[in-house]
Amino acid sequence: MLTLNEFARWTGLTLFEMDLHSVALFLTSLLFVLSRHFLFSLTILHLFAPLFVASALNFYFLVIIFVRTVIEDGTPKRAIAGNALHFFRVTMVALFEMILCHKLQDEFERGNQQKSIETTYFMVLMPLWALLIALSVHACRLF
């Protein structure tokens, strides 16, 4: 079983990022249950709003860290190299959330009607596959 420190080291996540996305996932799950159980009229975009906000906050704090690193070092080369995986990770997670939201919105709103653009689940999961490959390369670099 992985400890929290090992998980944070292998994925590059900080405790703040883990907490941020855990709270967002909890709020999204809560909104989903409330909208389906108590018949609130929330769209899929409203249900995914906590996840989008968490990704935006995560990206915002990564930009702050990037700017601080550039100011402290005086050159952006080290800042780009050090934060590339983090920016890639946040981008892939946000892209996955957006494509999944689009797919679910098409399925729930249009039902079984003819769709103009069919998004497969392979396309939805593509950012997660890219993220998995990047994390595998990062984990191999640690050894």
Automatic annotation (TrEMBL):
The lineage of its organism: Eukaryota, Metazoa, Ecdysozoa, Nematoda, Chromadorea. It comes from the Eukaryota. The chain crosses the membrane at residues 20-40, 47-67, 79-100, 121-139. The keyword Membrane applies. The keyword Transmembrane applies. Keywords: Membrane, Transmembrane, Transmembrane helix. This is Uncharacterized protein.
